[in-house]
Amino acid sequence: MNIEGIHHVAVIASDYERSRAFYTEILGLPIVREVYRKERQSWKCDLALGSAQIELFSFPEPPARVSRPEASGLRHLALSVRDIYDAVRHLAARGVACEAVRTDPHTGKLFTFFADPDDLPLELYQI
Question: Could you give the CA distance from residue 18 to residue 35 in angstroms, rounded to a whole number?
Answer without folding.
Answer: 17
